[in-house]
Every structure is written in structure tokens, then in C-alpha cells.
């Protein structure tokens, strides 16, 4: 009995000590609707995935808290010639496993990200290769003169050559192709946090990197990040109200008034840079079957009719709770290339939509396959259902199916539907070349058209995009970029709906900036001392 009592006391003391240690730690418990689908930084061009990975990995250059480009793993750079950038690397940086960061890692990372199977090959369109000058100097070679190479490099995160070789991860994976590897679930970066554990669709834990090269200069005082994907809106709300979560980065809009009334909770809402689009299948064959041997979506009048049939103002007012705006351009005002004067002029007009369908030869409408994503885009299930109802009123019937992210990406990206949803924020470039190169240029199996889901092709647009990728005169380049957007907004291979609103709820003890790119940057955040 005495031994049992002693053991119980020791266990109780141990539990108390652990509880005290947990309380002493600064922990941020972060919830959002969907999981981070991959930790491989070259597998998927997804803003949430890349944002999370930036807590672990770093690039040569980066966007700071004010969205200014600043040095990161490179201390400085210079233009050697029209197609070569020389980077001088930061010395003394170590990967999480203790390996030194040096030029060999940059060369291997560039080779991996420019591999044809890289899931973010399109984000490195101007990058050709890299060569080592010495241990801490690297030349990055461009495919030609490029005004956006540095922008692209903000999204190319550096990986450890030795680690990749050890774990047979020198070749990238791709979510669109359904491939995975060691880097899908394991990490080894140089960044502010280290992956401690990962249980897919359940929880990820990051811990502070005490050996981070910026450790002495950083203002962040976070010891641990516990990230949880929580699909249920009511569970995320309850967790925020009860104090279980310190940050929920995708609060349902209808729950914001409730949270605003609560003490100890800060609510942050603003439109983001991301435009929500419907993608249209412009191939010769519809997945739902052609009409009289034709695909109606190849006719611009049909695409315009389908756009005019959607009451986008009502979607913004009712489903998005008036917390954003209708998008009449393919990019947000903050993105280089935006021109309000060349915005889409037509609005909701179902009568004119029916007239255009009849003019195109489809007075009785047609049927389409329609696939929408669950748990990623804000309120997408509701506005997809609304779009389905609006189209049915003009005779366009759709078979609407909802999917989780992993299933949906392969359906959409491989053209196995007629209508899909896609959000585009032009990150990490903050430049319309992103949408032009990845969505509007015809698909070439290389750097162009990675997200050209409609299989849209316009030779004039292709030529302008290619010219803009090498044009160093910013005024001339802006004209080229704007012309591409204006022509595409007239053709409507993608139907713009609205700017996705950002809706965060945080503990009032968490100091964090909400930028329009909707990127959570906890290495710039801090927890107020009690």
C-alpha cells in the first residue's frame, strides 16, 4: 500500500510538473477547415500549403510583414548578365537536422523545383538552373531576360541536398499527379519552426527552432504551434469560444457577429487578393456529353450567358454576408496588371443570358458536370449550389458533386469535369504574370498553362504573355499584361465571381498581422505576456 501511495504521488507530481511546463510554454493552437495536403514544398501550388511550409522552410529571398521583398537565406544578389543572377548566401545557417546550408543545397533545390514533375514548376517559370561558384555563392540561370525572377524565388524554398539523397527525395512529388514521397510527411528546413509530429487530417505540431539564424532578432515568442484541421464549422466555432483554439483562420461568415460579442476574442475580416473562379471545359468533348456533336462551352456567347445568369451581387450579399465584393476583373487591385477601366461590364441579366443561349443555338439549354470542393474555399458549397440554381433558370442543368481537396484536385486538374472552382491570388509573385502564365497561356506540358483547366487557347494572348516574361521596360510590360487580362475577360474561359473574404478569429493575447494575401505568418506574431 505504501509503495502504491508513493508511486501515485510521484505520478501526480510528474503530471503537475508537465502541466506547469505546458502552461509556461507559449503555445498557439491553430485550427482551419482543411488539412495541409502535403509538406513537400514543390508538390502543390497552394497558398495555404506554401504559407504553412514557410514556417519550416525558407527561400533565398522572402516577403516580409509589410509585403516587401527582403533577403533571407541570401544576404545579397546582383545581376551578372541578362540571364544570370548571383546570390551570396548567408553563412552559419543550419538545417533542422544540423546539416550546414550551402551552395550545394541551392543547386539541388533548383534542380528539384525545375524538374518536369514538380507540382510548382509553373511558379519557377523563369528559372532554368543553378551552378555553384563557391560554397556560399550561387549563380541562378534564367530561361531569358526576366522581370519576375526574384518574385518567383520568394516561393522556392530551399531543401537539404544530403537529406533528400538520404531519403530518396531528390525528385519532386505532385498532388495533381497523385504522387507522394518522403517529403510529403517529413521536413528538414532552416526556418523558425521544426516539425515535431504529423498525423494527417488530425494534427501537426511545430516547435521553435532555437538555432534559427534570426532567433536573436525575431519578435516572435512562440514555443509551439499545434495545427488542427477541423472540418466542422460548429466545432471550430465552439473551440474558439471555449478557448481551445487561439487562431481560427477560416471562420464561417455567419458566425462572426457571435464572436465579435465575446470578450477575449479579436475578429479580423477583409477581402483578400484571391479571386474565386468557375472554370469551364472548352475541350472538344463535354464530360456530360455534347449537344448535337458540339461542346456549347466553346462558344463565347454561351460563356457570357452563363456569367450573366449568376446573380453575383446576391451571392456576395447573402452567402458572403456582404463582407467582400464582386470581382469584375481577373486580379485584385493590388496586383500588378490590374486596370479597372478594362473590367467586365455586364452584370446579372437572366433575360439577356437566355437570348444569348438561343442566339448560340441552345434555346433549350444543355447539361454539364459540375464539381465543387469542400473544406477549402470559404462557403464554396453554398455558392456552388446557388450557381447551380441560377443556371437552371436559363436552362443549363448541372449534376453537382462535392469533394474533399485530395479527390477534387485530381478531378479538376485532369479535366474530368465540365465546371469546377478555382481560387487564384497571384502568389507568391504579387503580379498578374502568375495568372497569365499558369491559367491563360495554352498548356504546353512545361512552364505554361499548369492551371489552364479549360484548355483555353488564344495565340495572341500566348504571344503577349511570352513577350511580357522577358520585357524589362516596366511600362511596356504593364501594357502587355493588362492587354492579356482584358482579352481574357472578354473571352471568359474562367468566370470570375468574387474576392474571397478573409475571416480570422484570434485570442486577444495573440498579436498577429492579417495581410491581404491571407497568409498566416506566426514567425512575426507574438503572445502577450500575462
End-to-end Cα distance, whole Å, is 42 Å
Give the overall silhouette.
Answer: globular
Count of extended strands:
18
Measured by DSSP, the beta-strand proportion falls in: 15-25%
Parts with pLDDT < 50 across at least 5 consecutive residues? 1-22
Region (Disordered): 170-193
Biased composition (Polar residues): 171-190
Signal peptide: 1-24
Keywords: Signal, Transport
Describe the protein's architecture and organization:
- The protein has 530 residues and is of the alpha+beta class.
- It contains 16 helices and 18 strands.
- It has helices at 2-24, 47-53, 103-113, 149-153, 161-166, 182-185, 233-242, 256-260, 300-308, 312-319, 350-359, 380-392, 405-413, 433-440, 459-468, 474-491; strands at 27-32, 61-63, 69-71, 74-81, 84-89, 127-134, 137-142, 193-199, 203-208, 224-229, 247-248, 265-280, 366-373, 396-403, 419-424, 494-507, 510-511, 526-527.
- The strands form five sheets. It has an eight-stranded mixed sheet. A four-stranded antiparallel sheet has the order 4-5-7-6, with helices on one face. The protein has a two-stranded antiparallel ribbon with strand order 2-3.
- The longest helix has 23 residues, at 2-24.
- Mean pLDDT is 92; it is low at 1-22.
